[in-house]
Specification:
By secondary structure, the chain is α+β, with helices and mostly antiparallel strands. It has a domain of about 130 residues. The protein is built from 5 helices and 7 strands. Strand 4 and strand 5 form a beta hairpin. Helix 3 packs across helix 4. The protein is globular, with a radius of gyration of 19 Å.
Length: about 190
């Protein structure tokens, strides 16, 4: 016999107000020791080796769709591919992933405000490891022009402040570390 329970009632409101000092602390106060944060642990994790045998791939368009599907599977909300001009010999393509952000991680330095950064790092870490398993080089790292690359990859447009605005989430989006790769892909945008 199946047990039927009603809706789960959470004792706090969905929208947090400025009157809650604990929530404000959780969102805005950075940890005392950044070395113990998940963000630093993922960024300092070793990348791993490139598999010695390259996988047989379909066309760059099909490979691009597979990369995008994998990125969405591991948690990316938006994925695009841009061609890199300066690194065209070593890494001709950039895979750009973005995740929804309730708070701007640049302003909300607390553990709760850094959740989109953690999610983005997880996505780029797993996706770059998967590309290396296919036998191609891939490295995920912060990029100074990440939001410009996201716009070039067709994820949205830059507003007057230089921030990415997407049709799906507006400016409530965090662009994760950029994956630079030599995997043959088809650029968007």
């Amino acid at each position: 016999m199946a047990l039927r329970l009603g809706l789960l009632k959470i004792p706090w409101p969905k929208e947090r107000s400025a009157k809650d000092p604990y929530w404000d602390y959780f969102i805005h106060t950075p940890p005392a020791d950044r070395a113990n944060s998940v963000v630093e642990m993922i960024r300092n994790a070793p990348e791993g080796n490139v598999f010695p045998n390259k996988a047989d791939l379909h066309s760059p368009e099909i490979t691009s769709s597979h990369v995008k599907e994998m990125a969405r599977y591991v948690g990316a909300d938006l994925v695009g591919i841009a061609r890199l001009e300066g690194d065209s010999d070593a890494y001709p393509f950039a895979v750009v992933c973005a995740v929804r952000a309730n708070y701007d991680p640049r302003a909300a330095l607390g553990i709760g405000g850094q959740v989109p950064v953690q999610n983005g790092l997880f996505v780029t870490f797993v996706l770059s490891a998967w590309i290396r398993e296919l036998g191609f080089r891939a490295t995920a790292a912060p990029h100074g022009a990440a939001e410009s690359l996201a716009a070039a990859a067709g994820l949205g447009k830059l507003n007057g402040e230089g921030r990415l605005e997407t049709p799906q989430f507006g400016s409530c989006v965090h662009v994760a570390d950029i994956i630079r790769t030599d995997l043959p892909l088809a650029a968007d945008g």
